[in-house]
Amino acid sequence: MHTPDFIDGLIAEVAKAADLCMKPYIHSVFLENQLDDNNDLEDLIFKIQCRNIDGEREESMDIELEVYKSGNEVNMTISWKALIERPILWQGKHAVWMDSSSGMQCQAPSYGKLFESLARRLRTVFKASLV
């Protein structure tokens, strides 16, 4: 069973990783889905809200992060919350970019390195916490 402190710790780690990888923006994080009756963390959906260095919201830069377990592996998808037509990053052992409409593999976009860096950092955090 996971305590609220454990969940708050994960949220803080997501915010810290976003601040580090998505500079110069500052991020706050919310868990969008509810835990099941067993406090199961099999599938987590985070909303990463973005602010500029003056503290003003930059909604176009908000990110959605979904983290889920598959066997002993932690996988995630990262996408822009408002820019749904942009490619989605699937990160497991390797990064794969997918067209958001078709789900077909595509080339990494211009911001790809930022998302991939964030995904690698978060995968380490979640692998230590969830597996």
Description:
The protein has two helices and six strands. It is of the alpha+beta class. A six-stranded antiparallel sheet has the order 1-2-3-4-5-6.
SSE blueprint and pairings:
Elements lengths: L3 H18 L4 E6 L11 E9 L11 E8 L2 E8 L7 E4 L3 E4 L13 H19 L1
Antiparallel strand pairs: 1-2, 2-3, 3-4, 4-5, 5-6
Give a quick set of tags describing it.
globular; six-stranded antiparallel beta sheet; alpha+beta; 131 residues
Compact description:
The chain is an alpha+beta fold and 131 residues long. It has a six-stranded antiparallel β-sheet.
Query: Low-confidence spans: pLDDT under 50, at least 5 residues?
Result: none
Report the span from N to C terminus. 13 Å
Give the radius of gyration. Answer: 14 Å
Placed side by side, the strands forming the largest sheet appear as 1-2-3-4-5-6
Count of helical regions: 2
Along the chain, the helix and strand elements come as HEEEEEEH
Number of extended strands: 6
Q: Quickly give the structural class.
A: alpha+beta
Q: Indicate the overall shape.
A: globular
Largest sheet: 6 strands, antiparallel
**Helix content estimate:** 25-40%
Strand content is: 25-35%
Mean pLDDT, all residues: 89
How many domains, as an integer?
1
